[in-house]
Amino acid sequence: MDRFTLEEVDSIDSTNEALKRRMRWGRASSGLVIRAEHQTSGRGQFGTIWESQAGRNLLFSLLLIEPDLPSERPFQLNMTICRILVDALRVFVPEVRIKWPNDLYAHDRKLGGILIENQWLGTRWQSAVVGVGINVAQSDFGAPRAIALRTLCSEVPAPADLLRLVLSKFDGHWGEWGRRSWAEEVEDYTQRLLGFGAMHGYRWVRGSDPAVFRAAIEGVSEEGTLHLKRSDGVPIQARFKEIAWLNPEEVHSPRPSSEP
């Protein structure tokens, strides 16, 4: 895995922020990985806070500079990274799936998350900082639906060992975001997607009628928009943060008001 340069630190504000600082200083190259035992200001998607106990989980960021991906399909990189991480985690927990757009779930609980921050120059994609957090050995969580590998499997890897496995998977699939067709990547992504082809309960985050509905995921667009078909046959589309996945305890059988 000569393409990666690994730096490990005890504590840092955020591994993503550290990589972006290194880029501004001109001291970063593609394949640089920063792993931290603890983050004081870890972030998730759309500014959410990522909380993690020191030394208990895998927290790292990977820098990709000028990845070979068509700029008109930026979501393709997200799909490739999700697929690689799911396949790595399935070595320990075969039930791991992607919760759209880029959370890692097992048994309806969040096992990890991905934060990809893209840098553009006009319409040209320059680089991506890929931040990953995976719950490995933590037992107490502030979030009610979080879970760790230690709860799901008997042989729990150390965070550093898990990182080596993840990087080996990245190494084996390096550059696929440019070589594989959109159709191939969509098929592999959706086959690992929680709720694909199966009815599930959702809620519109902002006002819509009906607010709660059942639908099956059918696919995603090049921009990452989710395509679903409601249980009454009505097709719908949802962008990031427009709908929320309903957990089993939130609703037993949500149905659109138009259903009998």
Can you give a write-up of this model?
With 260 residues, the protein is α+β, with helices and mostly antiparallel strands. It folds into 2 domains: 187 residues, BirA Bifunctional Protein, domain 2 (2-Layer Sandwich), CATH 3.30.930.10; 66 residues, SH3 type barrels, CATH 2.30.30. The protein is 22% helix and 31% strand. The protein is built from 6 helices and 12 strands. A 7-stranded mixed beta sheet has the order 1-2-3-7-6-5-4, sandwiched between helices. A 5-stranded antiparallel beta sheet has the order 11-10-9-8-12. A hairpin with a 7-residue loop joins strand 8 and strand 9. Helix 2 crosses helix 4 and helix 2 crosses helix 6. The longest helix has 15 residues. The chain is globular and about 55 Å long. The N and C termini lie far apart (57 Å). The C terminus is likely disordered.
Quick overview of this protein structure:
Helices cover 22% and strands 31% of the residues.
In CATH, the topology of the largest domain is named BirA Bifunctional Protein, domain 2
Strand content: 25-35%
User: What's the CATH architecture of the largest domain?
Assistant: 2-Layer Sandwich
- Strand segment tally: 12
Radius of gyration: 19 Å
Structural class: alpha+beta
Notable features of this structure?
2 domains, seven-stranded mixed β-sheet, alpha+beta, SH3 type barrels, BirA Bifunctional Protein, domain 2, single chain, five-stranded antiparallel β-sheet
